[in-house]
Amino acid sequence: MSLSSILTAFTPAAQDLAGKIERINGKISDVVWGPPMLILLLGAGVYLSLLLGFFQVFRFGHWWKHTFAALFSDRKVTRQRDKKSISQFQALATALASTLGTGNIVGVATAITAGGPGAVFWMWVSAFFGMMTNFAEKILGIYFRYKNEKGEWTGGAMIYIERGLGQRWLALLFSFFCLIASFGIGNIAQVNGIAVSMESAFSVPPFATGMVLSLLVGLVITGGLKRIAALSERLVPFMSVVYIAAASAVIIANLRQVPAAFAEILEGAFSLKSAGGGIMGYAMSRAVRFGVARGIFSNEAGLGSSVIVHSASDVREPVEQGMWAIFEVFFDTIVICTLTALAILSTGSHRIQGLDGAQLPFYAFSSVLGAAGEYVVTGSIMLFAFMSVIGWSHFGAKSAEYMGGGKIAPLYRLFFTAAVFFGAVSNVRLVWELSDIFNGLMAVPNLIAVFALSGTIYKIVNNYRERIFKCRKIPPLLSYNDESVKAREKRSRLSEKRGPLR
User: Fold this and answer.
1) Number of domains into which the chain is organized
2) CA-to-CA distance for 318 and 92, rounded, in angstroms?
3) What whole-number distance in Å separates Cα of residue 172 and Cα of residue 90?
4) What is the pTM of this model?
């Protein structure tokens, strides 16, 4: 019997097995990214907002002054004093490199298609509360980080899980989930999107795309975080400005339709109408589900991934880096995702029969900018996806390093670069779905730590408030490593018990 006949005989069985795997995977995904997980992620943001006095609202002017405004007035945020670290802005740019992806364009369109315009409102809600989850994560990242034998900062969710909770097994679990997710959602799935776009827009074969991308990714990530951050601080602002300008042009051209677009968003967010004779409130439930999910997928607040790069920042105050985390969610979801949504809704793309989610942004931009609009969307998707790959490579490398030591990182980068080529030439639907599961599972150990360490977060933020806003001369809470901090805290408590000196 020939090999081909053997393969032919096994084809039905193989197809049946593949179908079973996909069905099982789909059920697991529904659990991981189902209502309980979304409620947990959103609930964490609500809890931290209440705990920290809605810092994102009542201290808006303060965190804006120390983030975006500081880029034009304070040189310390764009340069580093320590050669082994990266600047505050480089940390932000590298984190945004991983979160700004196809989800900000195609993902928003898909959410509108599946959940209606009301999904946009719930995307805003998830971002509003997600700001404080992200804020808390980065505070813990800076507070619990430490320097390794090379003099480099080592931090991330796995570090504050181990040092804050004393649960190394839980930290290893987070690292494992992050490692697997880096190959899937952070590599193969993104590269496949680039390859498909290159083939459809410019007739470039996936094989060629895979070869070029493997070379580019390899050149960048072998230089470590310093090279990744240097590229991110240049490319992220460039691609963001181009996309914002193009989306704004589309919205301005349809300015009269913008009020109606906002009306659609608000009406859809709270619509209790039944869909096709279905259950009352079905439309609203879908708007909530897809809006919240899209917001979380986009900014990754609660997953703990970008803490790894923020922890390498050349900053002393945990709250200062936390404010960059607030801006990160604000820019990713409130700015970029909202511009995509308004461009689609103001042009009426979502009402055109026959257009699916992925086609909506192409139609919206080309309706105003012509062929240039399609090139902007295609180029933005490719650049956003490429930078996501670069950003996630660092997350995966640090996770591998935590699990197996520093010597394993070069081996990880080798496999990661090889996976880029595989992603370009393969059908990766199952890989995408599996990695999506591991991406969601990262939230479980991370949120356990965030909730358990919420008292520490409160103390750090309250200490900052007392020193900065009330001008009290008290010792700062900057680092878990600083034993003198603990001693001063003890003395402070003793003095409070004794009462003020007379």
Assistant:
1) 1
2) 14
3) 27
4) 0.86
